[in-house]
Amino acid sequence: MKLIFPVRAGRPLTRANAATRRVDTMMTWRAPSFQLEPSRQDTVIHGAVTGPRRPRGFRSRISWAGLVASVGLLACDSPAEPLHDDLATEVRMLAATRGFEPLPNPRPVRNDLVTLGRALVFDKLLSGNRNIACMTCHLPETATGDARTLSVGEGGTGLGSQRSHPEGIFIPRNSPAVFNLPGATRLFWDGRVEEMSDGSIRTPAKDQLTPEMDAVFEFGAVSAQGMFPVTSRHEMRGQPGDNGLADLDDDDFRGIWGFLMERLGDIPEYVGLFERSYPGTLFDNMSFAHASNAMAGFYNVEFVFNNTPWDRFLRGDNDALSDSALAGARDFMTIGCANCHKKSNFAGDFHNAALPQFGPGKTGGREDFGRESVTNLPGHRRRFMARPLRNVELTAPYGHLGQFATLETFVAHYNDAASQLEEYDIAAHVPDRLLWPTLLNNVEEILANQDPVLFTLRFDEETHANLVAFLRALTDPSARDLSHTIPERVPSGLPIDRMNE
Ligand code: HEC
Ligand code: HEC
Questions:
Q1: Whose CA is nearest to atom 5 of ligand 2?
Q2: How confident is the model at residue 364 (pLDDT cuts 50, 70, 90)?
Q3: 320 CA distance to ligand 2 middle (Å)
Q4: Contact 117, 130 (CB under 8 A)
């Protein structure tokens, strides 16, 4: 697949972004608030055109080093090192001003709670038709996502990219990884499970999630998250007539949770696991909040990763990052990426990143208004959460619909996002042909409230390569094989979904 660098000139401009788009060629492109000095126009070609430029002299020092190398004056220390260390110092300073720190170790979680959580997330008993578990869509073998553009829920067959539904039914969004959730205050692509500043948790269940349930949650928003997949018909519950759980009304959250606790209570092994996990509380006095909290405890122990090259670099090891990854870290923090991917986890607020819309959508009309449907604020239309980025290399495809299959293509999208959106060719990025005809022709609407940071975000091929190298340096080696997190069996005796079986 060809990446576009830079975008071709001369295509029609849309009204929504005409003011900020390149009007002639890259050489004369300029953002409204920022004009290049003629003498520095070459930096438009080599490097990002927004934000602070590479430090003066960086390139010339490279060529100086190259010259020295080529005339063989390298008897003692490698000349690459001072350069590397200079850049490392610069990146450390940028990281400190931006508040990027190594991720701390998570709080320990009691073993019994982890054992219960592990059983629950792999047990198909939590689904109406006993045919899908949480981990069917968050497979350890595919980095706790499902390696699919859009997920396929209950009633589907096969796993990962091979999974399909007999009626071609898709979940409206991509299944994100469940990495590094401790401390996350907003979950789902639209943040509809959210810990508010007063510590209360806002969810789609509103006051059906009682203060007593809230009191059970030990890990913040992530403790509440597991309450919801079980209520979704297409994800786990099934259609009316299928089973008792599916016969309950969609807004009867308490009924659904109570039904599941009865199912679990019929299995003595579960009763024992629950009572050991919450010493002093009888199973009969527990609610599904105890189950959901245990699932969060399991995620917080098994899927937290902070031993990436980037973390090692931040802890003081300059050699943890390659030259390219270091340059990528600098670019990430200077050209605009870090305006949205903030804090140590790189997760941020909600933004419209100008990505295309396809699939069933969430509105009934194949649209997905993202954050707007949570806050009811029209300005939040098509805003989605800026994702945390550790292990991102392992969690393809990318975007809230899995719009891009590779890191390279997703990052390339940011190079003049509006033009990239106009040129988006679903057949080139999405393997599932059933989705191709569902691409909406709504570029104008999407761009109408595209995030302003994207108006001026442009970069060249070298910066692109460095950014990708940086993102790859966010991988914890121990996340590459997570098969040890899968239990041998679950208390219901139902089969566990495993890849390659
Ligand atoms: C049918 C596939 C499917 C099943 C089954 C499923 N999930 Fe998910 N999961 C998804 C999708 C898709 C999303 C994103 C949905 C959205 O943002 O609207 C998601 C989001 C999440 C998130 C939020 C991650 C984040 O960073 O925002 C967590 C945590 C999670 N699921 C855990 C679970 C648990 C626990 C269960 C079982 C109770 C479960 N999932 C069952 C597909 C699934
Ligand atoms: C305007 C805010 C913003 C800027 C600037 C930004 N991002 Fe993002 N990023 C987001 C949002 C929002 C998402 C999720 C978008 C969606 O799916 O709708 C995202 C998603 C991603 C993803 C995919 C994550 C996943 O799991 O699917 C990657 C990788 C990424 N960004 C890297 C970058 C890099 C590299 C840059 C700089 C070139 C950058 N971002 C600049 C907001 C931003």
A1: 337
A2: confident
A3: 24
A4: no
Q: E strands within 158-220?
A: 186-187, 193-195, 201-202
Question: What are the boundaries of each domain within the chain?
Answer: 79-102+307-478, 111-303
CA 429, CA 436: separation in Å to the nearest integer? 10
Q: Give phi and psi for 230, each to the nearest 5.
A: -70, -20
Tell which phi-psi region holds residue 393, choosing left (phi > 0), alpha (psi between -120 and 50) or beta. Answer: alpha
Question: Residues near 497 by Cβ (< 8 Å), separated by ≥ 6?
Answer: 122, 133, 135, 136, 139, 159
Query: Is the fold of 79-102+307-478 the same as that of 111-303?
Result: yes
Which amino acid is residue 251, in one-letter code? Answer: D
Query: 80: left (phi > 0), else alpha (psi -120 to 50), else beta?
Result: alpha
- Which numeric CATH code is attached to 111-303? 1.10.760.10
Calculate the dihedral angle through the C-alpha atoms of 418, 422, 428, 430, rounding to the nearest 10 degrees. Answer: 70
Strand partners, 194: 186, 202
Verify whether ligand 2 is closer than 6 Å to residue 469 (CB atom).
no
**Distance (Å, rounded) from C-alpha 339 to C-alpha 495?**
45
Would you say how long the chain is, in residues?
A: 501
Quote the mean pLDDT of the chain.
87
Residues in Cβ contact with 237 at an 8 Å cutoff, skipping those fewer than 6 apart: 127, 128, 154, 230, 231, 245, 246, 256
Could you tell me if the CB of 121 is within 6 A of ligand 1? Answer: yes
Query: Does the pLDDT of residue 15 top 50, yes or no?
Result: no
Contact between 226 and 257 under an 8 Å Cβ cutoff? The reply is no
Task: Please answer whether residues 479 and 394 qualify as being in contact, where contact means their C-beta atoms are separated by less than 8 angstroms.
Answer: yes
The tokens for 427 are 């057949």
Amino acid at 125: L
Kindly report the CATH class assigned to 79-102+307-478: mainly alpha
Residue 343 is predicted with a pLDDT of: 86
Q: Atom 8 of ligand 2 has which residue's CA nearest to it?
A: 386
Query: Quick check: 189 and 173 in contact, CB under 8 A?
Result: yes
Nearest atom in ligand 1 to 153's CA:
1
Q: Does 171 contact ligand 1 (Cβ within 6 A)?
A: yes
